[in-house]
Design a protein that fits this description.
- The protein is elongated and about 70 Å long.
- The chain has 7 helices and no strands.
- It is mostly helical and about 120 residues long.
């Protein structure tokens, strides 16, 4: 979510979603320059959002859309199994003798937020 918000804030989400395509060769220089600047900005945000050890997965990709699609595919979890796992985890959560109340509620809140992220 933070990743998408950064792309939206920098006004490059349409580039990574493929809604704005590279201008044709006969487009004006200003149009090409605007596109290239946004594309570079989007690529930088994509690359800055991951750890260096994951760089190999995206190093060969050319466009910000390709990079974004790869990252979303790698990290977006929306399977029924994950939802079931989180529901079961919420049923089995216990405070524990050595845990304080605050950490107990933080764990519950994390599970709740994870479930909400799946809709």
């Amino acid at each position: 979510m933070s990743f998408d918000l950064t792309l939206e804030e920098q006004e490059v989400m349409d580039y990574v979603q493929g809604k704005i395509l590279e201008p044709p060769s006969n487009a004006s220089a200003a149009t090409k320059t605007k596109y290239n600047r946004a594309e570079v900005k989007a690529k930088k945000i994509n690359r800055d959002s991951i750890d260096n050890h994951l760089m190999a997965y995206i190093s060969e990709l050319k466009t910000s859309k390709e990079i974004y699609d790869k990252l979303v595919g790698m990290f977006k979890v929306s399977s029924a199994n994950q939802i079931l796992f989180l529901k079961n985890k919420s049923k089995d959560i216990k405070k524990g003798k050595d845990k304080d109340t605050q950490s107990y509620f933080l764990r519950i809140t994390k599970i709740k937020n994870d479930l909400l992220s799946f809709g």
